[in-house]
Amino acid sequence: MGKSRNARRGREAAEAVAEQVDGGLAELIPDRDRVRAWTLTIDGAPQSHVDLDDPAYLAFEYQRRLGHVIDLAAPAGRPVHAVHLGGGAFTLARYVAATRPRSTQQVVERDAALVQLVRRALPLDHNARIRVRSADAREGLAKVPDGWADLVVADVFSGARTPAHLTSTEFLDEVRRALKPGGVYAANLTDGPPLAHLRRQVATAAARFAELALVADPAVLRGRRFGNAVLAASDRPLPVTELTRRAASDPHPARVEHGRTLTDLTGGAAPVTDASAVDSPAPPPSAFR
After folding, report:
1. Global pTM value
2. Which residues pair with 227 in a beta bridge?
3. Residues 6 or more apart whose Cβ sits within 8 Å of residue 18
4. Average pLDDT of the chain to the nearest whole number
């Protein structure tokens, strides 16, 4: 009973934090159901959710799907070398630290003011081996040693859009250089009807990786609404069967496309190069309601 009252008092005492950062107005909004949990928004667009008491808890659908890819990238509990392009509230880096202790991680986040806010308001576990670098994602990736990473996760948005220079074959060449043989690349993509950006991104990854899988809400894959899709890529076979089982078991079930059906999804789209790259499409006003 005392613990319950303390939890309620904690929720009541917590207040939202709002600060101007390089990317807009950042707000940390307390979770009404979790005592030390917060949602980060930038200009009203949800970016991350963090539970400081339970960093293995992933609240957002797309982050759970990225979590599945992370879980299956190596045997359970084995430490990994991970690179996170896009930091937000460091949700996925915290997740790796909690589920794969002794992992060594690098987070690259361009918004230095946001990094300072998150470090102050949502401090990282001092035992976690997480290095945070304030830099452009592609520039930060270029500093990762050749063949260092077991896992590269890309979740980069500026004004709710992925910058063009992070959508090309040249960018994926840098990802491949940083990955160990058999390493895994995972990316959070967003698109809506008619899925032109998503088709091009799958074609771009297929030009650089032998194995692909795409995880998304069926309504997104059918082009019925705007939403997230998680792309996993590697030069070794991906654990598609287990990924499919986990995605289907989520509170918001997702479908996994791979092989011929994923190739068909591209509709003959051409890979994106630096010369042809554009930002991902902006979400409609209704996306965050």
Report:
1. 0.94
2. 191
3. 25, 26, 27, 28
4. 94
